[in-house]
Predict the structure.
Amino acid sequence: MKFPRIGTRERSPSKKRQFIDMNTLELNELCNHLWESANILRGPVDAADFKTYIFPLLFFKRISDVFDEEIAEALDESGGDQLYALFPENHRFQIPDDCHWADVRKKTTNVGQALQRAMREIEKANPDTLYGIFGDAQWTNKDRLSDALLCDLIEHFSKLTLGNKAARADVLGQSYEYLIKKFADATNKKAGEFYTPRSVVSLLVRILNPREGETIYDPACGTGGMLIEAIHHVREAGGNIRTLWGKLFGQEKNLTTSAIARMNLFLHGVEDFQVVRGDTLRLPAFHSGDSLATFDCVIANPPFSLEKWGDDVWSSDPYGRNFAGMPPAKSGDYAWVQHMILSMAPKSGRMAVVLPHGALFRMAAEGKIRQKLLGISNSRSAMTGACFWGSVSSGFADSCSPLETWGSQRICGPVYSGGIL
């Protein structure tokens, strides 16, 4: 591998490098700068696809700048030994030869091809942590992404120094969450598939009250917001968040969204987690022997009233997730609920789930499932709690009132439309 030329990242001698000083940069300034990157794409790229391109670029720039910091630190430790500085042990992630941000920045033609190659090679060099993390964006489509547009986008990001010293994980993580919300607002269509309003996430996490060392699982994790909020909750309670490393689990069917979730966790400084791309209802990713794995906290905002959710395989589900009844083919709400209940640890398990308010009142098969679940809750003290949340038609309710108790946990339901199961 060629040794990175730290401090010589200009694309040409005549082009001055303009940096934003991240040591004094406020969060809102960083957020505004990142949002401007989306405006560069506006026109050729639909707003719904902004996230497909912006998040991978942000992550690529971050790991490249951190790599440079690690090189500098290793050189300082070794008295300038360049071979030592490149040892894999000195780096969180490996960046192969010609795949650094600076290498791509030099390109003026076939920029998309250079970007795509760099991202794929980085994924291959880090198979246990970064495989598939850059998603499936079509960087080589020049009808959408011309060389000039990509050069402008790369130069815009190059104004930011995103290493650990300049961009703390908490600030960068908050800016990432800001972009997720902005992209959801800009799309204003099916945004709930990858974003849940922060107030709802915060409420559900407070109800569950995750603690140090507990396992946390989101079977429909979207961009990872609920896992991130659980970490914030433990930190704010004075807990050691590192006790959560290796105990955060999520599954997400959408390729782009699952990649965003992984980048989100990495950018928040989370060092060990498992987010798996896959269909939870058809092929759950986490097991303990022949059974589903169980967790202390189970939390999710699954797709509302999902059709074609997997009823064809649930009639003979090997995990027994139809224990309270078979959900209707046109609505998978109670498939998610039963999956989550079986994913609760026997004594410490508790769960919170966001559901459409119709799931609380529809009769027929769903009415029978609700009745059976209530019977189980009254007879099994091990089922410590669940929050069944009904959304208001205009959005999500932002407050909750205590309605009932299961075992040792208080259950909350919405003040407006919806209610407790």
